[in-house]
Amino acid sequence: MARAKSTKKSSTAAKSVSRGKATARAGKARKKNVDELDGNHQHEPGSTSLVIVESPAKAKTIGKYLGRSYRVRATIGHVRDLPEKKMGIDIENGFQPEYVTIPGKEKTVAELKSAARDSREIFLATDPDREGEAIAWHVAQQIKSKNGAPVRRVLFHEITRDAVQSAIENAGEIDERKVDAQQARRVLDRLVGYKASPVLWKTVKKGISAGRVQTVALRLLVEREREIRAFKPVEYWTVEALLEENGQQFTAKLHLLDGKKPVINNEKEANAILAALKPRQTFQVTEVKRRERRKNPAAPFTTSTLQQDAAKKLGFGSKRTMRLAQDLYEGMEVGDEGAVGLITYMRTDSTRVAASAAMQARDYIKMMYGQQYLPDGPRLYTDGKTKNAQDAHESIRPTDPTRRPEHIRKYLKEDQYRLYELIWKRMIASQMESARIERTTIDLDSSDGQTALRASGDVTLFDGTPATWRPPSPATMSSAVASSR
Fold it and tell me: Is CATH 2.70.20.10 the right assignment for the domain spanning 240-296+435-468?
């Protein structure tokens, strides 16, 4: 169970209350914003349910899905944390943390308490991860009362109408284990930071901080740098021959020398081998091997693989990638659909795909690319490779695989579009048939059998997943349009 000491300052509480009353009397602008969020409807006390999320953007989208009987409020991140001016951890009594309201969040807490008093039930819908669970727990500690409305936990893994309504219907309880996990991380951050940061102030720069992550990362960097400096480069050479058969040129590498794998240590040895091979005009083909292999599609994105691919293909830094993914997850205005979440939750280390989403993707692939691009069954990516993942939610994928990037491009900013396109293509590709590639290997020997060259090349028999990186053919597009009618 997560336990913490809670410090309350009467003066702060009094200011919050008085400020709240003043706002109630004269805060017409704030009331207007609240009314807009609630659909501009007046609610009788106890007639509505309260949904608490983290982001105002998400609040707006969810409010449209739930309708008049729900009010949606945002915490805008954490509302409680360890104090800034002191350690805030009682080391002698089981490392008990001392939580205080974050400066500047007094008004937010007061508004949440006020909204909770007038609600028939309360749904805590902060993000479905450890941080979100901790925020939900802190909010619950502040707003719940002895005879107040019941408080329940809701997880939105994607922001679509069906997903939001289903999550509300299946609300549960706060996961105390996740709360404890986040609390342990926060306490460790504070303990390490208070010890390590002063060292940095003396040696690097005043005011910078170190914590649980930075100290370990620094050690990894130092160890890697030591390995680099200890590395002793070793010179080696390779020999290649440019050959031709029936007007087709190809390259063959030296494969055997004196019947053994060649080890060429310097330029002199390489030139000696060249001198021996140059007089040869022909090489005898001694063996041709053909082997077919399958190249399976990559699994849908996790947080880390999304950041890696976005950096490699789009040139996005990790912060930029996650900010754009947050926008896509929380909801975008998409024409007649209104506000809709375009991707599932973007913080995950699971590659799992829901069966319903996989079947949607398969139907789309069959319609747009043809039956030959479908494997025998859906790929759900739930094998042993991900058994150690925190499988609380799925991989990062489009909420609707049939929502092609080019169809919604006009509603998105360019960076949002590029990231959505990357996520969409990865998901569709993950459900396609494996590519089939034939590798041909040719061995060429000298007359004495002591020197051999080897050439190899690949031929694609079936492209498989790369099909998603090109548009469907006009024929399949026409048939798809006809079938949709």
Answer: yes
Other beta carbons within 10 angstroms of residue 438's beta carbon come to 13
Q: Report which secondary-structure segment, H or E, holds 355.
A: helix 355-369
Position 114 pLDDT exceeds 80: yes
Q: Where in the chain is the domain with CATH 3.40.50.140?
A: 5-183
The β-bridge partners of 383 are none
Distance CA 169, CA 47 (A): 18
Residue with tokens 């041709």: 288
C-alpha separations of 221 from 155, 216, 226, 227, 301 in Å:
37, 9, 9, 10, 26
Distance CA 115, CA 154 (A): 18
Q: Which token pair is 366?
A: 């069959």
Is there a catalytic annotation at residue 364? no
* Residue 88 one-letter amino acid: G
With a cut of 80, say whether residue 19 has pLDDT above it.
no
User: Would the pTM count as exceeding 0.85?
Assistant: no
Single-letter amino acid code for the residue at 304: S
Superfamily covering domain 303-433: Topoisomerase I, domain 4 (1.10.290.10)
Answer yes or no: are the C-beta atoms of 82 and 140 closer than 8 Å.
Answer: no
Check residue 22 and give its pLDDT. 38
Share of the chain above pLDDT 90, in %: 59
Top-confidence residue, 417 or 85: 417
Closest Cα partner for 179 from 71, 99, 75, 116?
Answer: 99
CATH of 5-183, one of 3.30.70.640, 3.40.50.140, 3.40.50.10310, 3.40.50.1820: 3.40.50.140
Q: pLDDT at position 272, please?
A: 92
Distance CA 90, CA 367 (A): 62
Alpha-carbon gap, residue 323 to 327, rounded angstroms: 6
Residues 61 and 342: their CA atoms lie apart, in Å, by 12
Q: What are phi and psi of 449, to 5 degrees?
A: 75, 5
CA distance 242 to 246: 14
Identify the active-site residue in 65, 70, 99, 345. Answer: 345
In 329-409, DSSP assigns E strands to 332-333, 339-340
Facing residues of 154 across strands? none
Buried/exposed code over 22-53 (b: 16+ C-beta within 10 A; e: otherwise): ebeeeeeeeeeeeeebbbeeebeeeebbbbbb
Q: In the chain, list all ranges with CATH 2.70.20.10.
A: 240-296+435-468
Strands 5-6 and 284-295: unpaired
